[in-house]
Structure formats: C-alpha cells, structure tokens
Hints:
The structure holds three protein chains of three kinds. Mean pLDDT of chain A is 89; it is low at 15-24. Chain A is elongated, with a radius of gyration of 25 Å. Helix content of chain A is 36%, strand content 21%. Chain A is α+β, with helices and mostly antiparallel strands. Chain A has helices spanning 3-17, 37-70, 87-115, 151-156, 255-269, and strands at residues 123-130, 133-138, 144-147, 179-182, 186-193, 198-202, 207-211, 217-222, 229-235, 248-253. Chain B is mainly α. Chain B contains 19 helices and no strands. Chain C is mostly helical. Chain C is rod-shaped. In chain C, 22% of the residues are buried. Chains in contact: A-B, B-C. The B-C interface holds B 105-106, 109-110, 113, 172, 176-177, 179-181, 183-185, 188, 210-211, 213-215, 217-219, 221-222, 231-234, 238-241, 244, 248, 520-522 and C 2, 5-6, 9-10, 12-14, 16-17, 20-21, 23-25, 27-29, 31-32, 35-36, 38-40.
Amino acid sequence: MNIKKLAAAITTAAALALGSPAALAAWTLNMTPGITAVSRRIFGLHMLMFWWCVAIGFFVFGWMIYSLIVFRKSRGAMADAKLTHNTRAEIIWTVLPVLILIGMAVPATRTLIETEDATNTQLTIRITGYQWKWGYQYIDSGVEVFSTLDRTSNAARQLGSGIDPRTVPNYLLSVDHPLVVPAGVKVRVLITAQDVIHAWWVPALAIKKDAIPGFVNEAWFKIDADKTGLYRGQCAELCGRDHGFMPIVIDVRSKADFDAWMKTQKALQRPADPAQPS
Amino acid sequence: MAYTAHAAAHDHHDHKPSGLWRWLSTTNHKDIGTLYLIFSCVMFFVGGAMAMVIRLELFKPGLQFVDPQFFNSMTTVHALAMIFGAVMPAWVGLANWMIPLQVGAPDMALPRMNNFSFWLLPFAFTLLLLGFFVPGGAPAGGWTLYPPLNLQGGDSFPMTIFAIHLMGASSIMGAINVIVTIMNMRAPGMSLLRMPLFVWTWLITAYLLIAVMPVLAGAVTMLLTDHFFGTSFFSASGGGDPVMFQHIFWFFGHPEVYILILPAFGIVSEVIPTFSRKPLFGYDAMVYATASIAFLSFIVWAHHMFTVGMPLAGELFFMLSTMLIAVPTGVKVFNWCATMWRGSLSFEPPMLFAIAFLFLFTIGGFSGLMLAVAPADFQYQDTYFVVAHFHYVLVPGSIFTIMAGVYYWLPKWTGHMYSMTLGKWHFWLSAIFVNVLFFPQHFLGLAGMPRRIPDYATQFADWNMVSSIGGFGFGLSQLLFPYIIYKCIRGGEKATSRVWEGARGLEWELPSPTPYHTWEVAPSMALIHQGAEHHPEQGGD
Amino acid sequence: MDDRLRDQQRRRARLMAFALMLLALAIYGGFILMSVHRSHG
Lengths: 278, 541, 41
C-alpha cells in the first residue's frame, strides 16, 4: 500500500471522527494536490517530507517515551553514570540523518528545477499588485482587468458591520473581475507591483511569487484541460492596512471559451486602448 | 509590585545603597541579572497582551474589535516585544546571574557597561511603545520592517528605528561583556572544555550577536536615510533594490533565531543531566554541534525568501544548506535522549519544562525541515504553517527553557524552595494549552490561510476558534509564573546549597541564597573537578 | 594573590572588549558601505 493511499485513509478517518461529511471542508487538515502537474509534484513532495517526519518522530518520541516510563527514579531506576559516550551510536546518528536528507534533497531538487522551466509558453499575463487590488494585463492583446474584493464581502468585513460572514458566499475570497485563464495552455505570468511588495498566491497552482515594485518576477502554469472552474487565493505578503482584503480568483475556462471571452474583451476595450496606461 | 518583589529579593547586609538608587546604579551581576529578568517578565506580559488581542480578533470571522491597521500594529509590536523585550533580555539576565557563578568569577568583567546595557532597554521600549500614541499609530509593517511598506509608516517610524538601535547597542554591549567574562575571568583550572554547556552556548550566542546586531543596525539606518535624507538604498526608482533589504535583514535574522534558541540548548543540557542523575551524554559533540549550528546560521538566510524570485542556483544552495542544519540539531536531540537513557529520572518543574522542550522543539524541527524544501515552501511561505513552526521553536523552545532555567535556579537565588505543586500546575496548563494554541495553526496554513491577516474566509473559522481558546488558556496560565516567583521570594522552605540531588557545577557549591559577592576567592581545583564530573574524561587530569 | 589575578584578568578583558567593539563598528560600517556600492551600481 503506498503512502498516498494511507494518507487519504487517515485523513478520511480523521474527518469522520470530527463529525458529519459537511464538516469535512471546514476542519481541513492538509494541503490540496492542486490542478497542475507541478502542483501535484509539490504536493507529493510535501507528503514525502511529512511521512519522513512521522517516521523519524515515531522513533525519537518512542525513545523518549520509553525512557520516561522505564528510567524513573520512583520505579527504583539507578543511574548508569558511566554512560557518557558511545562512538558507534554517535556516528550512526550523524550519518543516518545525512542519508535521509539526501533522499529528501534529490526529489526536492528535481521539482525545483521543473518549477523554474518557463520555456515555450503560449500566453503571457502581467500581474501587478496595488494597495489593495490586482491588475491583470494580457500582454499579447493588451486586454487589462482590475480585480478587487467583491462588494458583499467588502460590506461584511467592515468593523462592526453586523453582517454574519457565514451568510456571504466565499467571504473574502471573491472578486469583481477574476483572472480568466485557459486550461491546457502553458501560461507565463510576469509579476510586479506598483507601490509596496505583495505576493501572488494561488494554492491550487502551487505558485507564490512576490510582486516587487521595480522588479519583474516570472512564473508559469499549465492547468489540466479538465480542471475548469474557479480557484481562489490571497495576497501572501503583508502590504498594509487591507492586506487581508485583496484576494485572487482565477476563472479557468476551456481553450475555446477563453478565446471567445478574449474576443469580447478586445472589442470592449479597443476604443479605450490608446488612453490605457501601459 | 515588581519593584517590591525584587527589593525583597536580597537581604540588606552588604554594602550597597538602598532604595531606587541601588537599582539604578548597581554594578553587581546578580542585581543586573534580576533587573533583566524582571524587565523580561514585564515585556512577556506586554507582548502577551498583544497576542491576546490578536487571538480575540481571530476568534471568529468578521472584524469585531480592532481596525486592520491596529491589528497589523499588534502583530508587529508583539513580535518586537517578545523577541527583543522578553526572550533576549531573559537570556542576558540568566547569563548575568549564572555565568560568573558557573565559571568561578567574582562578577562580569565590565560591570559599569553591564549597568548601562540594561538601562538602555527601558528607554528603548518606552520609545517603541510610545508609537501607539503618535499620529499614524505604532509600526504596522511587520517586525521584519520590509521597505517600501515600512517607509509608509507615520511618526512612529523614526521612533521604532531609534528603539531598535538602542536595543541593538544594549545587546552588543551585553554580548561583549559575556565574551570577555568567559574568555578572561574564569577561575584558574576552569578550562574551556570543563565549562558547563550553558556557558558554552552563551559564548557562541554572544559571538553571533556581535556579528549580526550591527548588520540590523546598518539595515535600519539605511531605512532611516531612505525615508528622511533622500537616499535610495531600497527604492527601485532611485536605483536601489527592496530585495537587498531582505537579504541584509535575514543575514541578521537567521543568526538571530539561533541567538534566541542556543542558550536554551545550554539550559536543557544542564537540567536533563541533573534530573537524570547522570552526566550529559556526548559533551564534546554538544559543543561542536552548537558551533556548527552557529556557523550554518550564516549561510542559510535566504530560505526566508524563497518566493522573492532568486535564481535557481541560489534557491538550490539555500535549500540544501538549510537541510544540513538538521544534522547537528539531530545530534543534540539524540544526545539529550541518550542522557535520559539508563538514568534515574524525577520530574520536578525544571525537568518537566525541559522534557516538553524536547518533544515540542522536535515538532518545530520537523516543520522546519519541511519548510527548508524550497518547492514545498512555495506553498508554506507566509502562511499559518510558518506561524506554527516558529511559535513551536520559540514558545516551547525558548520560553519553556527560560522557565526551566528560572525554576532550576530560583531556589539558589532566593534561598527558598518554591511550591512544586503550583509549578507543576503551571507546567501542565502551559504544555496542554500551547499545543491547543499552535498545533491547529499547521492545519490552517496547509489549508491556505495567509499570516498577518485580521480576518479570514469562513472555512478557516473552526481551527481559528480552537487556536484562540488555546491562546486564552495559555495566556491565563502564565499568570501563575510571576505569582510562584513572588511567593518564593517572600518565603518558603529553606533551600540547601545543592538544591537538587543530582545538581553538579560550581554554582551549587555556593550557599543558597547566594551571597551578594561570590567567588572573591577563586574556587579550588578540587571544586572545579567535582563540578566537571559532568564530563569525566575532562575531570580526570 | 587573588586580587592580582583578578586585576590582570580585568585588564585583558577591557582590551578584548575594545577590540570587539571595533569589530562591531566595522561590521556596521561595512554593511552600509557595501550597500552604497550596490545601490548605485
């Protein structure tokens, strides 16, 4: 039985123990695998590290607990004051961790190299962070969209608004204009900021990159063709008063739907084009 | 209350001025140690009160109590108060009290500078906390002070910078004092490899402090000139680089993390052997492991910055060097386990806190190892997973060991035993609530909750409520700590000079309470060798 | 004898403290100079 199945089994068991299936979403315990090949690699790496930690913990905590139970003075344990060195043991517990670390470092390095390979992209989007909203510009077509917290969330999040956040759909995680992207296409994003440092993070893509004024960072993703839908994220770098209120929503559409959307946007924005700031 | 508490701490049979002047002008290492510890305790509750505000606002979704800007001030000042006000002064206080006693020196080498370095601190923190009352409010850009955000700060911005300069100057002077005391003032026969581990870890910590506090001072000086004098070190529009600040900051920041934890390793290495009635396992390996951790701390800084867009080679280097830290840290944990192995364990409060450290610091180490893996860190960076990680290494790591140290040496300082029952209550409440408080934050981070946000999406509500309940419980149980200390100062069962059956080392050869002046006549070789039974292969010659 | 020992120790300590203070100042200045260099380069 592989560790992924075991992980799933344990997560399910924990979720069941916590109550009804409805509670499953709320009492979340773990990361989600995401919607790109890279995000799944990263999820796998995360689980690999997790299970290594569990295994090491099993051994170390087992050792501690055994000592705490067996070598109690109250049970008449006598101290062996001569036990102050054991060269063989010390070599083992220096070398063994090194080997385990190598076992972790190899897949980690491979994944890291994969995430940095931003070649052969078919679409480029420039993302700009502002205090406190996101700007998305499709470089090839010039289409530009600004994305701010949607109005219902914004009303509910005011201090003492009296509106129960639970009545607001996707409270703090929905925007007026999401970033529309095509599935099955390798997309490059160029991330920058206007005023202070922000960070663009969509967990489902496993992308988190700082948006830094005066600098341009690059990232890329290729969403599985069948994973259309809405995915949500948030600004991940403290950027001032409303840092918590500039969410990110990506609207993943099929290639055909995306092209159709792009065509209408171009038509809408063309007259204003010359006046658009670059 | 604090004042009467420490005034009563000492009998007035020595020649020293009485009243307030005694404390302002004192050059006695024990008095200064006491001042540091009281200051630390006050700041622990100031920073703790801010943590309570944070957990109160996060108790449920929606903004109920504070404005987002004030919330940001809370997280910022909570961090500064806890790091520079609670943990660091506690270590300096313990160093002041214990290092001269442990190495057989009559006092710190530079007593007047010692007084000065303490009295800078109240001014530094007054300046920092006054920020709440000036236009623009207290600093709210995070304790990491990243530009350009921090340059948007109001009138409190220069006050914060000057406060940090004062704290830095105080720490550098404290560190210099520790180094020159250890290097020069040891009693004849107290060779370096006979020193207790607490002295060793502090020596290494002091070198780290001297190396990196000036770096922080440099970074904040440049922030100041960027804001007021038209330089553009960190502004891209003027040819500078905001990421350069992060590199400089974390070149300070990562060693700083070890400054907060290395003395903890020292305390645990004293407490576990005492209550296992057995010498420390692998003394030499412990010293070398501490030195390796200190060395590695200088070449891992950019693991705090995996998402800034470094070149691949940089990310690889910092990922691999960070993972390497697991090796010396592992050696230390295994050595502590081996010290308990075939020992004769008893569970007084200092030992309980040390054991909790062993378990919970290891959990913090595991999440640290996960965070080291750069691609996975893209998902963890700036989420509650990181918050959980560093609170696991700092609360059950540093704070619990400070408490272990205080409970260990308190009878030596006051001459009275404290209430073991209350101490155990304090321990169990702390140990349970600290996990209720911080363990769910791992889940929140993995589920996608960013840190430093005053309000959150409803799917994070359940674990946040659990975490807040843990927070209130933890905060309330800490009130026991000053109460126990106060009671112990006022009276209680007479402490013997050895205090704990298994205690070894020069400080236990002195009477309890320790006289105002100690080791004016250097301890004899015999006493030093007896203390060095911690590591018999050293004691035999 | 102890007084002489302690006096000697204190003298060496003061010297070493002075050297460490210079080191700290050098690190402070060094980092600022390095940044001056970088931000105009």
